[in-house]
Amino acid sequence: MNFVAKGYSDEIPAATNSTKEGREKNRRVELFFIPLEDLGVSNPK
């Protein structure tokens, strides 16, 4: 299993960064699990 980390708080904020509350909402972690079959991997090792 491989993991990739990417920060998006500046590029894709969940809220405005001009307020304290908005900056708090942008401090987040989102995990997405994509089945290997959806990536075209037919026989994972």
How would you describe this protein?
With 45 residues, the protein is an all-alpha fold. The chain is built from one helix and no strands. It has one helix spanning 20-26. The chain is rod-shaped, with a radius of gyration of 16 Å. It starts with 19 loop residues before the first helix and ends in a 19-residue tail after the last helix. The model has no long low-confidence stretch (mean pLDDT 83).
Which short descriptors sum up this protein?
45 residues; 0% strand; single chain; mainly alpha; 16% helix; rod-shaped
Strand and helix map with partners:
Elements: H1 20-26
Structural class: mainly alpha
Number of helical runs? 1
Which sheet architecture does the biggest sheet show? none
How far do the termini sit from each other? 10 Å
Rg measurement, Å: 16 Å
What proportion of the residues is helical, as a percent range? 10-25%
The averaged pLDDT comes out at: 83
Question: In sequence order, what are the helices and strands, one letter per element?
Answer: H
What is the number of strand segments? 0
Quickly describe the structure.
With about 45 residues, the protein is mostly helical.
